[in-house]
Prior knowledge:
Elements: H1 3-13, H2 18-24, E1 29-44, E2 48-50, E3 61-66, E4 84-89, E5 97-102, E6 109-111, H3 123-129, E7 133-142, H4 151-160, E8 167-170, H5 181-193, E9 208-218, E10 221-230, H6 231-235, E11 243-249
Antiparallel strand pairs: 1-3, 1-7, 1-8, 2-6, 3-4, 4-5, 8-9, 9-10, 10-11
InterPro entries: DUF1963, YwqG-like_sf
Protein name: DUF1963 domain-containing protein
Amino acid sequence: MTIHDQFRAEALGHGFSESEVERWTPLVRPCGVHREDGQRAGHFGGPIMVPAEVDDRWFPLVATIDCAAVPPEVTDLALPSDGQLLFFGYPEEDGMGDVVYVPSGAAVQERALHPDAGYDEDFPEIVQELQRGDIHLVPRLSLPFVDETEAVAEALAQQWGDPAARFLLGGYGTEFDSRTPAEWAAEVAARQAKEGPRSDRATDSDHWALLAELNVYRSGGGATMFWAIHRDDLAACRFDQAQFVVDWNP
């Protein structure tokens, strides 16, 4: 059974009309959601193991995904078949972040969990507050909030969106200001591209995909961090071109 067959059967079973189901089925995408009963696919936090040519990061390592361990039914992202994806992010209002891809078999060296220089005096405390442990993924159906005023869109997204999930891989993610994270990232990239060397590259959201979402709960507030990437860069494993955006909730 494909995800669209699953969606159709479950939606009809929950009382949605045939026309509603036909309208929303093409938008359904798979995503992986962290649940303790899922398949292990990585871990939260460190250690930071990267090749010597990779510069030290000035924001925490929050999650590492083992690409070979990601179940094929979990996501439709064109992830590498092996190696690791390291997600770095700073859970603050003006936070920064990026993604580092470490190919399988690459020579690596361990880096400090936080930089020695005084980037932020709260850095060690933030690192300590981040979640630890393994990441276990289970497949879920993902749907966008196309319009907040449409009861069907909201009901379907709540039914299959797993809004309380701490970590998500792929899919649409949690909406922000009536847009998907990929749409938000595309807008940011478009503004940056006007002055950059890649100004001729398509930056509309159809060319972008959400890589991951992480919800962080801290003593001073919470943050939802998103990493999105242009699909051309994903296909070419140019993860250094990923776009990071964060929704800070004090």
